């Protein structure tokens, strides 16, 4: 497939139709007898996804796999973050997929091995790595078969298990993934002192710690405040504590690092709104460290269920948004004014609030509808 698709005339046709209606295009006959219109549309979709998720692949000669493989691939930005953590001599990616993570991780390793059970997908990856001047060993094997036959050791084992069952439904528990992490965790740690597993952003952290006794690090990775993945680090060395790191890429915010379990002993003070209001980013909310963030930054909470914080003095370095705000009465809200509306722990949703008060969405000003311990409150940005 790859050799045909990199034909210059075919590539020019693909590039000329990047903004075409794909449903209409599929009804047309391919102008090239050696490739189908389905293959051409697949490449157009690939370029569209690449522009958003991994623009480094928008290079002449690169080809793209089916849509599902593109959707499951990491973005270049989260892969780059992980590449800044991992290094060594020998890396193996046991679930290569489209190879985005392995491509970035390979920057800090001398030898790279990619395992992939789908031969067509592996062929695409090998072709693209060659086009990009990258070297690796590509092995078309089922992960379980490779592990049973393998005699090598590696500095780092990386894997991103499939998170859909045979009926294509999403699954989250480690025993339901493919491969079953609980079944192979000992085998993984027998070939490397460090195993790194990318997991769904929806997975429960306490569950992870309860079923994986060898965790020494947990990273919750958000991109522009959208949690993309939870990354688990396992080690065969004795580990006394688990270090967690919450990161929000492309936000300019510092990572928030803590020891797993610290939240249990942390306490929050409560207060009515003061000069500044703080909203933690979503990686913090995913970690559930609602009292710990309050304690670390010496902030007061408005309400146990709001997860808004306040202070008279501005606390720099807070991992989230900071607003200077004032409390207002609902009667002071004028119709047709423009606001960004945030509603948490409040009876009405933003759309309902806009309708009730006749407000327009957007602009520079913010309204927060929430509760303090004394009851419902409305805050307006200053």
Tell me what you see in this structure.
A 9-stranded mixed β-sheet has the order 3-2-1-4-5-7-6-8-9. The chain has 15 helices and 17 strands. The protein folds into 3 domains: 2-64; 71-259, Vaccinia Virus protein VP39 (Rossmann fold, 3-Layer(aba) Sandwich), CATH 3.40.50.150; 264-381. It has 382 residues and is an alpha/beta fold. The model has no long low-confidence stretch (mean pLDDT 94).
Structural class: alpha/beta
CATH architecture of the largest domain: 3-Layer(aba) Sandwich
Strands, total number: 17
Low-confidence stretches: none
Tally of separate helices = 15
In spatial order, strands of the major sheet run 3-2-1-4-5-7-6-8-9
- The rounded distance between the terminal residues' Cα atoms is 59 Å
Tell me about the biggest sheet?
9 strands, mixed
The Cα radius of gyration reads 25 Å
Average the pLDDT over all residues and give the rounded result. 94
CATH top-level class of the largest domain: Alpha Beta
Fill in the CATH topology of the largest domain.
Rossmann fold
Question: Considering the protein shown, what is the CATH homologous superfamily of the largest domain?
Answer: Vaccinia Virus protein VP39
Give the overall silhouette.
globular
Portion of residues in beta strands equals 25-35%
User: What helical percentage do the residues reach?
Assistant: 25-40%
Number of domains: 3
């Amino acid at each position: 497939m790859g050799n045909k698709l990199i034909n210059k005339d075919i590539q020019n046709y693909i590039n000329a139709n990047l903004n075409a209606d794909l449903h209409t295009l599929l009804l047309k006959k391919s102008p090239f007898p050696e490739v189908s219109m389905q293959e051409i549309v697949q490449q157009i979709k690939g370029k569209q996804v690449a522009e958003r998720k991994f623009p480094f692949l928008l290079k002449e000669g690169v080809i793209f796999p089916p849509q599902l493989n593109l959707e499951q691939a990491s973005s270049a930005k989260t892969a780059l973050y992980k590449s800044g953590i991992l290094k060594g001599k020998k890396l193996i990616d046991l679930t290569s997929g489209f190879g985005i993570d392995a491509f970035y991780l390979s920057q800090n390793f001398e030898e790279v091995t990619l395992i992939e059970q789908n031969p067509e997908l592996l062929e695409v990856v090998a072709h693209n790595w060659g086009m990009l001047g990258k070297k690796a060993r590509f092995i078309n094997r089922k992960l379980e078969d490779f592990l049973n036959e393998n005699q090598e050791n590696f500095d780092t084992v990386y894997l991103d298990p499939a998170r859909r069952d045979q009926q294509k439904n999403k699954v989250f528990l480690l025993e339901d993934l493919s491969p079953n992490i609980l079944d192979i965790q000992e085998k993984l740690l027998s070939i490397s002192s460090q195993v790194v597993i990318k997991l769904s952003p929806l997975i429960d952290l306490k569950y992870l710690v309860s079923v994986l006794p060898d965790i020494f690090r947990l990273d919750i990775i958000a991109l522009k405040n959208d949690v993309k993945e939870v990354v688990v680090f396992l080690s065969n060395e004795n580990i006394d504590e688990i270090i967690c790191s919450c990161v929000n890429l492309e936000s300019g915010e510092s990572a928030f690092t803590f020891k797993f379990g610290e939240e249990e002993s942390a306490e929050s003070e409560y207060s009515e709104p003061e000069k500044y209001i703080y909203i933690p980013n979503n990686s913090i909310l995913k970690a559930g460290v609602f009292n710990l963030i309050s304690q670390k930054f010496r902030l007061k909470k408005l309400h146990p269920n709001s997860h808004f914080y306040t202070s008279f003095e501005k606390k720099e370095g807070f991992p989230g948004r900071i607003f200077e705000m004032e409390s207002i009465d609902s009667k002071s809200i004028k119709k047709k004014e423009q606001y960004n509306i945030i509603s948490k722990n409040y009876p009405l949703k933003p759309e309902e609030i806009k309708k009730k008060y006749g407000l327009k969405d957007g602009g520079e000003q913010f309204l927060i509808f929430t509760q303090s311990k004394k009851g419902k409150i409305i805050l307006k940005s200053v």
